Amino acid sequence: MSLTLKKIAALASLLPFFGGLLDGVRVARADNPIVQTIYTADPAPMVYNDRLYVFTGHDEDGSTTYNMRDWHVYSTTDMANWQDHGSPLSLAQFSWANANAWAGQVVARNSKFYWYVPVRHTTGAMAVGVAVSDSITGPYRDALGKPLVENNEIDPTVYIDTDGQAYLYWGNPNLSYVELNSDMTSYSGSIVKVDLTTAGFGTRSGNAQRPTTFEEGPWLYKRNSLYYMIYAADCCSEDIRYSTGPSATGPWTYRGVIMPAQGKSFTNHPGIIDYKGNSYFFYHNGALPGGSGYTRSVSVERFTYNSDGTIPSFNMTTGGPPQLGTLDPFARQEAETIAFSSGLKTEVCSEGGIDVSFIDNGDYIKVKGVAFGNGAKTFTARVASATSGGKIELRLGNQEGNLIGTCTVPGTGGWQTWTTVTCSVSGATGTQDLFFRFTGGSGELFNFNWWQFTA
Ligand SMILES: *[C@@H]1O[C@H](CO)[C@@H](O)[C@H](O)[C@H]1NC(C)=O
Ligand SMILES: *[C@@H]1O[C@H](CO)[C@@H](O)[C@H](O)[C@H]1NC(C)=O
Q1: Mind telling me which residues the site (Important for catalytic activity, responsible for pKa modulation of the active site Glu and correct orientation of both the proton donor and substrate) is annotated on (predicted)?
Q2: Ligand 1 centre and the CA of 172: distance in Å?
Q3: Active-site residue numbers?
Q4: What percent of the chain has pLDDT over 90?
Q5: Which of 95, 297, 386, 420 has a CA positioned 20 to 30 A from the CA of residue 42?
C-alpha cells in the first residue's frame, strides 16, 4: 500500500476542522488529475466502441527517480468519471527487458490491440517493444520476444494512415520513424532519422547540441488531411509544442507552443484525441499531493482547433473538461468509476475486474453528475471486510454535504469475501455530485466492488 498517499489522506481528513476557510475549496473540488489512487504519467488516449480509454505509465509512490514497472488503463464515457481497469501490462511480460516502463501508445488493428512501449533491454540500451491483446483492457503479452526497434531512444507513437500505412515514430533527442507492416509487429525499409530543422521544430536558444526545440514524446495524427506532430519541447522544464505537415513523413513546419511549462513536473507528455464531437488534450504534471517530476499525474483539457487547423495555446487547470451527459445511478456502477477520490487504492477483485481497497476513516469517492431524477429509494453496495467493516455515508455536493443515507458494512471474514448491503435513501433528486464518505474505526475498514440505487 501507499504510505505516502495514505499519510496525505490522513492529513486531508483533518482539513474539515479548519472549518469555513476550506468550505470553498471542498465545494470547488477539482477533477484534474483524473486518477488519484496512484501516480500516473505519459497519457495515450484512444477511442474504441464509443468509450475513451487512456493508457498511462505509473510512478511508484514516493519515487525520487524514475521508478516505473507497469502500465495502467482507465476509461470514461463522460470525461468526468473514470473507470479503473487496473494494470494489463508490466515489465514482467518482456523477458528481455528489466526496467523503465516508460511512455507508450495503444492502437487497434486486425481485431487486436497493440501496445508500443519503451523499456530497457537487459543489454542496457533503451528499446521499443510491442505487446498484443484481443481485448483493449488486456491482459497484453509480448508479441515478439525481442525489441521491435532499438537505438537507445524512447517514446513510441503509432499512427495508421487512411491508406492503411502505419508509421512508428519515436525518439529522444533525435526523432526517427519506420513504416510498420500491416501485422503491426514488423517493418519494411530502414529506420529513417527525421532532419530536425529549426524551421520544422523551432529554435532552442543557448543549446548548440540541440538547436531545435524537439525533446521527446512525439504524438502523430491526422485531421482534415493535415498531419500533426505534437511533442515535449525545450527541456527542462518541458513545454508542449507542435509541427504540421502534408504527409505522415513531413516535411514539418513549426507551429509553436500548445501548453507552457507548468505544474510541478519538469517533463510533460502530450496525447490528443477527438471524442463525442470535442477535442481533448492529455498531459501530466505533479498536481496530486506529493507530486513532483517523479510522482506525476495525468490530466486533461478540452480545446477547440482554430478554423485554419492550428491549435490554440492553453494552460493546465484543476477543473478539467465539462462533463458530457450524466451518470445513471439506477444502473449498476463500479466503485472504481471515480471523478475524484482521497486516500484510496484499487486492486484486482475476486469477482472480476477491480475493487476499491485500503479504505480508511475519512476517505471519500466523488461521482460527478449523478442523475437521480425524481428520487432514489434504496442504495445497495457490494462490500467485503476482514475486520469489522464501517459505514458508507451518501452525501451530495461535497464530502461533508447533505446526508441522504448511511449503509453499514459488517465484517465478512475476508477482504475478498463479498456481501451485499442495502440501506434506505431520502432527499436525492435531480442531478447531483454524489460522495461516498467512508467512516469507521482505525485501520482498513472494508473493500468496495460496485453500487446501485433503486428509484
Ligand atoms: C542523436 O542526437 C544526439 C544529440 O544531437 C547526437 O549526438 C547523436 O549522434 C544522435 N544519434 C543518432 C543515432 O542519430
Ligand atoms: C495562461 O496563464 C498565463 C499566466 O497566468 C496567462 O497570462 C495566460 O493568459 C493564460 N492563458 C490562457 C489561454 O488562459
Answers
A1: 155
A2: 9
A3: 42, 216
A4: 92
A5: 95
